[in-house]
TrEMBL record:
Gene3D superfamilies in UniProt: P-loop containing nucleotide triphosphate hydrolases (3.40.50.300)
GO molecular function: ATP binding
Top-rank lineage group of the source organism: Bacteria
Pfam family, one: TOBE_2
Domain ABC transporter: 3-233
Name by which UniProt lists this protein: ABC transporter ATP-binding protein
């Protein structure tokens, strides 16, 4: 295991900000830590980097306990959200910084700079001033600089935080391909779930200094463990339910659940794709309250009488109009019985 945190704890003013966290990152793995603001993501990175001492527990790299090992001796690379490039240096000067600190000779540094600029798609930009570059180009320089000393672990803090959406979507695909090619081990933190799911082999969702869930993007997306994770991922159709056999009693009436679901009182997630529109007489009667265009589908907000709103995902052409009366039935394949843990 390249990185291992055991029982890692950090307290500020007596309050745990990292609370007995256990986390492992294997060599060549890309792990994205995801969570709301203040959940402890940056503190986790700082602990691994050696910028924040632990109040309890242990951080090991390649099996070696890092207690007392200063940041610059840990062999980890860090890239922060605001790049922190040296504005007075050109691109090459920025990228060569790490190798220079490690005592690399001039020729070796120049070769490394050229190789890295090629890699991040900035060939020929060595002499350009950092201040003249676009946000996306600066991001690439920051990445090249972080990769230059060949860190055994690369850590990214909101790597694409400042960029506009289309650029982020493009860069995240490029980054994943690049890390795969280089075999880089990556620990990244972001509050953007789209970014985390696109970049990671494994996502770790944090809540109040603890790990709420860890799994592949598909596992976490398909089976959020509890209401907190489900809501954090943007699912709003979550209600209390009582499961008996393959049906659940809810404020929306009886809802089918998958075979083998846990029984009894729980929180229930109904994915918008599992909310089917049928004839008014054939299901739960609802009024269309609003519609939101989502590119691939339309999110239709439905108001049943005396129960919380439901969101349905409808094909672009089939979406009903606000004010329409519709019936709703539920598809058990799109329903997840969540743990009974309290919500946020
Ligand atoms: N040096 C410090 N002194 C006191 N409290 C701190 C310190 N650093 C962080 N905190 C607190 O610890 C908590 C976790 O902070 P952290 O920056 O790790 O969260 P985060 O998940 O990275 O948040 P964000 O997404 O907003 O960056 C926050 O409540 C923050 O106010």
């Amino acid at each position: 295991m390249l990185l291992r945190l055991e029982d890692a704890t950090v307290r500020f003013d007596g309050r745990p900000v990292l609370d007995r966290v256990d986390l492992e990152v294997a060599e060549h793995e890309i792990v994205c830590v995801l969570g709301p603001s203040g959940s402890g993501k940056s503190t986790l990175l700082r602990v691994v980097a050696g910028l924040q001492p632990l109040d309890g527990g242990r951080v090991s790299l390649d099996g070696g306990d890092q207690r007392g090992v200063p940041a610059h001796k840990r062999g980890v690379g860090l890239m922060f959200q605001d790049h922190q490039l040296f504005p007075q240096r050109d691109v090459a000067g920025n990228v060569a910084f790490g190798p220079r600190m490690h005592g690399a000779a001039k020729g070796e540094r120049a070769a490394r700079v050229e190789e890295l600029l090629e890699l991040v798609g900035l060939r020929g930009a060595a002499r350009r001033r950092v201040g003249e570059l676009s946000g996306g180009e600066q991001q690439r320089v920051a990445l090249a600089r972080a990769l230059a000393p060949r860190p055994r672990l690369l850590m990214l803090d909101e790597p694409l935080g400042q960029l506009d959406r289309s650029l982020r979507e493009r860069l995240v695909v490029e980054l994943r391909a690049l890390f795969g090619e280089l075999g880089t081990t990556v620990l990244a933190v972001t509050h953007d779930q789209g970014e985390a799911f696109a970049l990671a082999d494994r996502v770790v969702v944090m809540r109040d200094g603890r790990i709420a869930q860890s799994g592949t993007p598909l596992e976490v997306w398909c089976r959020p463990v509890d209401e907190f994770v489900a809501r954090f991922l943007g699912f709003d159709n979550v209600v209390e339910a009582t499961v008996t056999g393959q049906a659940a009693d809810t404020v929306w009436g009886k809802v089918p659940v998958p075979e083998g679901s846990p029984q009894g009182v729980c929180a229930l997630l109904v994915r918008p794709a599992g909310v089917r529109l049928v004839g008014v007489a054939d299901g739960l009667r609802c009024t269309v309250a609003a519609r939101t265009f989502r590119g691939t589908h339309v999110a239709v907000h439905l108001q049943p009488e005396g129960a919380p709103r439901l969101e349905a995902a409808c094909a672009l052409r089939d979406a009903p109009e606000p004010g329409d009366e519709v019936g709703v039935s539920f598809d058990g394949n799109e329903i997840v019985v969540l743990g009974a843990g309290p919500a946020a």
